[in-house]
Design a protein that fits this description.
eight-stranded mixed sheet; Spore Coat Polysaccharide Biosynthesis Protein SpsA, Chain A; 220 residues; alpha/beta; single chain; disordered C terminus; 7 helices
Length: 220
């Protein structure tokens, strides 16, 4: 199944102080690490950014799309990406996730049938809505929320048919849970570079390797 990959790059980045996408982790810009890992599992990569950043030389490995709801947070970016996607399902990640694991993302794509979204559950009351897979079927719900200025992407989850990915499913693929590590402050970047020294990319997909665990039975 062909899928689109949506990378959210439109944030204000006030806490970090500069472009997260251009920050270097393990000798590579974060955006290059992300697109390198998304290319084997997606047929289209979209970078959602603000009109102010649309001409920034971010990467030539993705299509730049300007956020249709600027200033509305990640929900507007996800909606924009789904509207521009050429495929029914889209992977969504942030530009501040230097350690995405494409085996885990492919596993999540494999779980999408009959669901609006596939979302990791990190704990009883914690999910990761910005390391997920969404269907175009989410567009009406997202559009209504945006028009009503209800901007939390987490608040719309209850209105979607979601397949949650539980710890026992993703830990065998990503035992250190690095997929969910994001960079908000300069100290996070320093930590990311320390992690990168010992990052294990064994089993990542580079084009032909599709050896993934079978989908696990759905849990509520």
């Amino acid at each position: 199944m062909n899928v689109t990959a949506i990378v959210l790059c439109g944030g204000k980045e006030r806490r970090f102080g500069s472009s997260k996408a251009a920050a270097v982790v393990g000798g590579k810009r974060i955006i290059d690490r992300i697109t390198e890992r998304l290319k084997p599992i997606s047929s289209q990569i979209l970078l959602i950014t603000s009109s102010e950043k649309k001409n920034d030389p971010i990467t030539d490995q993705a299509q730049i799309v300007v956020d249709k709801f600027p200033g509305k947070g990640p929900l507007g970016g996800v909606y924009t990406g789904l509207m521009a996607a050429e495929n029914q399902y889209s992977i969504v990640v942030g530009c501040d996730n230097p350690f995405i694991n494409n085996r885990l993302l492919q596993h999540m794509v494999n779980l999408t049938e009959h669901y609006d979204a596939v979302i990791p559950r990190l704990g009883k009351d914690m999910i990761e809505a910005l390391h997920s897979v969404y269907s175009k079927s989410c567009i009406p719900v997202m559009q209504q929320a945006l028009e009503e200025n209800r901007l939390s992407i987490y608040k719309i989850i209850d209105r979607l048919n979601v397949r949650y990915v539980h710890r026992e499913e993703y830990l065998p693929i990503d035992p250190r849970m690095l997929s969910f590590f994001n960079i908000n402050f300069p100290d996070d970047l320093a930590r990311a570079n320390r992690i990168a020294l010992n990052e294990d990319t064994t089993g990542f997909l580079y084009g032909d390797d599709n050896a993934l665990p079978p989908p696990a039975p759905s849990k509520p």
